[in-house]
Amino acid sequence: MKIEGKGKVLASVAGIVALGLLAGRCAPSAPKGARKGATVSDAAQAAMKVYVAPGDLDEYYMFASGGHSGQMYVYGLPSGRHLSTIPVFTPYPATGYGFDDDSKKMLGELTWGDTHHPALSETNGDYDGRWLFINDMNGRIARIDLRDFKTKQIIGPVPNVSGNHGSSFVTPGTEYSVMASRFSIPIPKGTAVEVAKYATDYKGVVTGIKVDPKSGEMSMGWQILMPPFDYDLGDAGKLVSNGWVFFTSYNTEKATGKLEITSAQKDRDYIAAVDWKLAEQLAAKGEGQIIGGIKVIDPAKNPGLVYFMPCGKSPHGVDVSPDGKYVIGSGKLVGLTTAYNWEKVQTAIRNKDFTLDDKGAPLTEDGIPVLKYESIKDAEVPVGLGPLHTQFGPDGYAYTSLFVDSAIAKWKLGTWEVVDKVPMSYSIGHLAAAEGDTVSPDGKWVVGLNKLSHGRHLTVGPSQPESSQLLDISEEKMKLVLDFFTEPEPHYAQIIKADKIKAIEVYPKEENHHPLATWDVKDAGVTRNGNKVTVKMVEVRSTITPTDFEVKEGDEVTIAVTNIEQTTDELHGLGILDYNINIVIDPGETKTVTFKAKKKGVFPYYCTNFCSALHQEMQGYLIVR
Length: 625
Ligand code: K7E
Ligand code: CUA
What we know:
Blueprint: H1 6-23, H2 40-50, E1 60-65, E2 71-77, E3 82-87, H3 101-107, E4 119-123, E5 126-136, E6 140-145, E7 150-155, E8 176-180, H4 198-201, E9 204-211, E10 218-226, E11 230-236, E12 244-250, H5 259-262, E13 269-275, H6 276-284, E14 289-291, E15 294-296, E16 306-311, E17 315-320, E18 326-331, E19 337-341, H7 342-350, E20 364-365, E21 368-369, H8 373-376, E22 377-381, E23 387-392, E24 397-402, E25 407-412, E26 418-423, E27 428-434, E28 443-450, E29 466-472, E30 479-486, E31 493-497, E32 525-529, E33 532-540, E34 543-545, E35 548-551, E36 556-563, E37 572-576, E38 581-585, E39 590-596, E40 601-606, E41 619-624
Parallel strand pairs: 33-36, 35-41
Antiparallel strand pairs: 1-2, 1-31, 2-3, 4-5, 5-6, 6-7, 8-9, 9-10, 11-12, 12-13, 13-16, 14-15, 17-18, 18-19, 19-22, 20-21, 23-24, 24-25, 25-26, 27-28, 28-29, 29-30, 32-33, 33-34, 36-39, 37-38, 37-40, 40-41
Helix pairs in contact: 1-2
This protein binds sulfanyl-(tricuprio-$l^{4}-sulfanyl)copper and dinuclear copper ion (CUA).
């Protein structure tokens, strides 16, 4: 999204090239800092592709999960600039998240989360720019509203879900955001059973969290009982496969102990294919047995609900092609990925074409039939070692990350030909393509989300950033054009065209319905009801009103701050020293913070967010007698 037109960009690039040539005095072939072996022309071309001139805007947003930081990070592409941090499962003093009453309540007792897979809301299988969902291993999903980039709801911990890794993938109409247990446990939660009884007494579950199509509000949809495997990743079917959702699973041995050995005994693990439309119907009929406070549907009693598709050992990603015709899944330690043909899967289901056990009977796992691998696979594509995750372009090309090879392979759906491979530095996990999970990927860019960054940046001590690498995929050969660095731990990211997001920068006054909103400094002040004190506070450049107030020791104090600004970027903060209070109020917003006045004395408060030349004058005194 170049604001000032291409001419200016080319002129800027000419500048880069000229700089490169000047620097060339000591390194004749490459600009200063370019990797060994790069020529001026390679580096200049790459620079031209990713250069976003000062004042220009990126064309894409990348929303990357922050792993066990519990946050989401927003980057611009192709520049790789970090634009924003969206606090989700962890307090974040920079925006006061987790300190004000509402966000504190939303976080509850858990002040950390482990986020893995962001999912942008979809309409007809395309990102619609409305919401962003993100899972937490502690059995939760959060919804971020992309109108203001704020976390609006956290659902969970959802009963029976343990280690919510296979999440927060959405169905093509955002009917559901799904969850799957990584760690099977005895359910309901709270039951203690020895690990020796794992195979019989532990269970996994797959859950559909219903999303209200208007408000995005999440509620419990359905839950399905699953054998005690480890469920890993998921993806919803689309177009021809719409109505189904797929999850990889490992440890189908139902083993315990050192899984790296004990779960490597069989030839194959499974991809679970779940008919979510049937689950929805069954849930509507009241099917299921209440476990842990919610109805859990048993697939053994409801044929057609779940099938297992045999897959290479320890698969990670499962990915549905943009047309919905292929489901791609791989064993994590092998050199090929399998393309399952959805038509063949359906035929196998119709014909009851199941894997047979040693006695020649159809193989089931806790009552769930296992389809026959040979009947449902279309191809085994020799992508390279350690295929983890696949993304797609608009032209029938697929891009698979290879952890062991540390590379990305480009291959063609249908011909199954591997056409290109580019090394990553180092050990790529997921990869994300522009609009890559939709029915109409953009091509253009793929980001490799690498696990290690060793030697790619100025040293910062042992806790190193993660390296992401941007590939230009607009031509036949992929080109590595940029390294950039992210906060831990960008397990997965999604990339959306920037013009799909219509964010506000100010909360309009007329939308503020907070009961304690105070828009006139004359209405600011203190009211008392017994030992409960309410302080209506107004912040506007460059005064906090009231400028001082008194309470008594032991009072329960609620401060409601309204930032009455209606101007972009005029945020105000409220920090109260020694009381661990730090909130930030956006223009037009009202927030409350409640605390017990436990300490006597005089406590200065002040605006923490730089707002004007007299920001430093925005201060006052809390007196506790
Ligand atoms: Cu780290 Cu999807 Cu949780 Cu992979 S995840 S590489
Ligand atoms: Cu208000 Cu600084």
